[in-house]
Design a protein that fits this description.
Layout: H1 14-44, H2 56-59, H3 64-119, H4 135-143, H5 153-161, H6 165-173, H7 177-192, H8 195-205, H9 222-241, H10 244-247, H11 255-275, H12 290-309, H13 313-323, H14 326-332, H15 335-358, H16 365-389
Helix pairs in contact: 1-3, 1-14, 1-15, 3-4, 3-5, 3-6, 3-9, 3-15, 6-9, 7-9, 11-12, 15-16
Length: about 400
Amino acid sequence: MPTAATLTDRPATAAAARLVLLDGIRGYLLVAMYVAHFCIEMLEIGLYSWGNYTRHSRWLPVGDIEFFLPLSGFVVALSYVGVHSRNGQRGLWQTVGRRLRWVYGYQVAATLALVLLVAAGLAGIDLRQPAGQPLWALVLKSFSLVVMPENLDILVLNLVLLPLVPPAFALLAGGRVGAFWAAVALAALVARLGLDQRLSAMIVAAGFDWRQWFGVMGHFNPLSYGVLFFAGLALGYRYKTDRRWFETGAGRPRAGAALAAVALLAGYALAYRHFRHGGPFGGGNILLSVHALLVTAAAYYLLFWLLATRALPRLARAVSAFLALPPLLLLGRNSLFVYALHVVVVALAKAAIIAVQAAGVVPGQAMMLAVLGFGLLVMLGATALKNRYLPWTS
């Protein structure tokens, strides 16, 4: 996956330093996803970890994926504008194709690892498949993405959304911004009305159950969540081609808008405290909700204002120092690898806790936190090795 560290020739400038922090944000979000998925798996076996207090979804109607997707789109745009300007659509398709191969490879590798763990008898791994299937069938279905394990959904979204990047660039580069947003809105509307599901049901009813042969969607609907990815892509394209719009134009950060973002986040936090499991925030997150969209936009605008204006210098320095921590940068610069790896680590951690329970021991907070921390160390070590010996991969 492209990294912010490769987006500029002058890393000493303030703007370049802020771009490098994008890797830190991705690293933070990867750690947050790892903790959240671990805690969810613990809840499934009747345990409550203190790690739940760090989950974004505990405090606001938003998950880590809502924060991750627009950042991915932003970094993709920053990375591919130069490719598109130099080599046109053909060069962009080639670049996207190379990235798709890595995404697909990580998806299949993580899935096969979980399939083999299930075959080895480890408990608690959900492949989202009917029980009793032979190993060879699960292996084959891993390559066609029919086997879709828990927590691998971002990779699947990338597989669906990345082929749409060249057409999106064609619209943006051609000045057809209205057509770009119309296409994004139309896709979201199709998902909201369930037209994609109706089409799928019609094809199945006609006698061809394509779902047995090919998978295109995990838990999150790509037509709906694509709004976040392509919003980030559009902003990244604008930042790369017209940075003055962000610095002195209509896109420059304003204190009034930052205060409005604070008010919105505070209001959602108070409301969510009372309606977390129902009311306006119920119904799951297969489709992107307006609440999650607003919270994501407000949070990113506030962070942008803080780091770009330095109006609160101490807080800005503290946030920048945190996001520049080497472990976060390491994870963020290898985000696809880390994302795939964390799914396997979470599965192994859950299996270890289940084994402890089977032995008659009730895992306490110290044990769960120790397992969680050990898994994070494993991820950091594996990523450091990968970064050393396979630095050209993402």
